[in-house]
Design brief:
- By secondary structure, the protein is mostly helical.
- It has one domain.
- The longest helix has 15 residues.
- The N and C termini lie far apart (52 Å).
- The relative contact order is 0.12.
Length: 73
């Protein structure tokens, strides 16, 4: 029974990390600090997405001033 439950539901550790990754915003962090946090949570969650998907996720939560400059380049 325990094994079936573990297979069906994420552990609290993974739930917390996915939640943090999903709600991560740049806020008062520098772009470098935000990127470091973003990458740390990608590794903890073992996200298996294409580079394009990760890039879109990363830029989506950057401060719009920085995201717009990066998109233009």
């Amino acid at each position: 029974m325990k094994a079936k439950l573990k297979d069906q539901f994420l552990s609290p550790y993974l739930q917390d990390n996915y939640s943090t990754l999903h709600h991560l915003q740049q806020g008062n962090l520098s772009v470098e600090e935000y990127t470091r946090e973003f990458k740390k949570h990608l590794i903890k969650c073992d996200v298996q997405e294409s580079e394009e998907q990760i890039t879109v996720r990363h830029f989506g939560d950057l401060d719009s001033r920085y995201a717009n400059v990066i998109k233009l380049q």
